[in-house]
Amino acid sequence: MTNILFTLPWPPPARATLRPVVPVFLPYAGCPVRCVFCAQHIQTGRGPAPLDLTLKSTRAHLLQRKARGLPPAELAFYGGTFTAQPPAALHACLDFFERAREEGLVTAFRCSTRPDAVDSRRLSLLRDAGCDMVELGVQSFHDAALAAARRGYDGGVARAATDAVLAAGLRLGVQLMPGMPGVTPEIFLRDVRLLCEQPVAVPAHAVRFYPCLVVEGAELADLWRRGEYRPWPLDQTLDTLAEAWLMALHARLPVIRMGLAPENELRAALLAGPWDPALGARVMARALLLRVRRALAAGNPKELVRLEVPRRCQGFFWGSRGELRPAWAALGLHAEPVWISENTLRIEAASPPGEAVAPFSGRKGEI
Ligand code: SF4
Which of 215-229, 257-271, 333-347 has the lowest mean pLDDT? Predict the structure, then answer.
């Protein structure tokens, strides 16, 4: 029997790679339409408020941070279509940022917007004002899915917007929505592949996966009640996101968010859909299992002899309420793995005669 050692990189903790971000929520600001799935006031836990009040409370927060000795943050204008705001509102935001930067409260800002609301003029304005990253609410690059969700643009516009952001010298963030009307797991993984795989890769700097939910107050709730929309089941969402997360890992594309934050408003208004307050951790648990399983299955069938895992995976390794224990046991892991401090998975495997490791199917009940 020959023992074989695999060493696979595992990403460093997100906090080590990100600057502190202070969000400024501007629900629906500049939005040309109300998208069928969108209920910003519920998803963010903040209702629309006059811009001057929002900026005033943000300033108070930034001053508090400074008084506590915290480092300057990055400001993030989220919740609307930042670049399509009326000029007075847009310039009020840019002026606010400039003043805060002069006072050493912030270093840069980022904003979220729609792919059909960016052009070289607006992007240059943002860059010259100190913008660092533009996050595009692409949701999908797939024409039929975008049409089904009535997003108002097609995949070509989405792709051109990503190019425009990069051409302006800005960092690019992309938000995708698995389970949006018209988006199947295959279409979602195709979208992720577009961000990750050469020669067609969109060289994004960060990606967010927001599984589509049905919340009271969004048009999707009516479609769901009439049986015209069915959200993805949670189990399918977890498996599909695990696959997508591994693709992003392989492409060194940081996944900076999976799922919505567990705001009380969201919990109260959620009607259906794959929501879990620990969605990201559950996805990473499945991705880790999938990665080890694939490493073992590569080449000759192999059995796990020893597994070393970064200590920070300890909290989610076995999955929610130990749901992944049977799958790990099937690979030969019956006790705790060895916890290590490096950003690495180390797998020692052997090839016992006639003992095959079952291939991963990702279907319910099998992991
Ligand atoms: S999804 Fe984006 S563009 Fe659509 S209504 Fe919500 S914030 Fe506005």
Answer: 257-271
Q: Which residue intervals of the chain bear CATH 3.20.20.70?
A: 14-277
* Burial class of 337 by CB neighbour count within 10 A (0 to 12, 13 to 18, 19+): buried
Find out whether the beta carbon of 81 lies less than 6 Å from any atom of ligand 1.
yes
Ligand 1 atom 6 nearest Cα: 38
- Position 18 scores a pLDDT of 64
State percent of the chain over pLDDT 90: 74
What residues are paired with 172 via a beta bridge?
134
Check if CATH label 3.20.20.70 holds for domain 14-277: yes
- pLDDT given for residue 160 in this prediction: 95
Nearest-atom index, ligand 1, CA of 34: 5
Q: Which of 161, 152, 87, 156 is closest to 118 using CA atoms?
A: 161
- 211-260 residue pLDDT tens: 999 999 899 999 999 999 999 999 999 999 999 999 999 998 999 999 98
* Residue 139 host element (H or E): strand 131-139
| Alpha carbons 151 and 170: distance in angstroms, whole number | 24
- CA-nearest residue, atom 3 of ligand 1: 31
Atom of ligand 1 nearest to the CA of 40: 6
Closest C-alpha residue for ligand 1 atom 7: 80
Position 300 scores a pLDDT of: 66
Q: Ligand 1 pocket, 80 CB below 6 A?
A: yes
